[in-house]
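Hi Y.,

Following your request, here is the sequence exactly as I used it, all 243 residues.
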Amino acid sequence: MSSRRFVLQWAAAGWLSCVAFVVLPPVLRPMAGSAPDLPTRARDALIEQWESGVVAPVPSMADLVAQWADYHLLKSAFAFLVVVALARVLGLLGREHPLLVGVIAVAATVAWLVVFANVQGALAPLASVVSLLPPVSTDARYAAALSGLRADLASGVANPVTSALVEDFRFFHVVMVALAIASAVALGLAARRAARTGHLRSTAHTGAAVLLVVVLLVIGAANLSTALDPIPGLLGALPSPTP
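Below is the corresponding structure, written out as tokens. Let me know if you'd prefer a different format.
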């Protein structure tokens, strides 16, 4: 009965952390303007940054990047609390609930990947802001900024703005490489120890752990490829300069 109570308590903690993940970051770190305004802010900041021609962030870009980093830091913290709660539930459930264990393990994996994504956004916010950029409509200055960025990227011209964006985009993927490999190693060592002590009670559990390690290594390898050659990925992430 005590074990069941602890399971319910940790499950409730996980649910509350999910709610906090969605609700609290905008409250604790309000963004200037509403969510629909973010693409407009990103567009205007990019135009100002491009036209400045300097590496140092212009005020509009500095404000957006700082807010975006804090926002993702908060979301990564709440997502991590979800992972902790789900891990505790997994540790308390016995072998008599294999289906439930599988569902919670998948949920914990998804939550862990959400942690990864938000840590990326917190540590490399400039690259993350690229995802906010809207499609081009009739704004000639925006189209010119995107055209200039794309031309520099394609030709390898070392424009200060382009270089700063490339380096942050590279670091964005280096962060994922580090997180994925560290998690794969930690999970592999934990699974090996659990197998030796008898905590991995079935072949299915062992197979799931091995599969997750492989998935993490694949994620790490894919991001390493982009980190070594970030320009094609950045070109793909930027909106087209023509509507």
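Residues 2-237 form one domain.

Thanks again,
Q.
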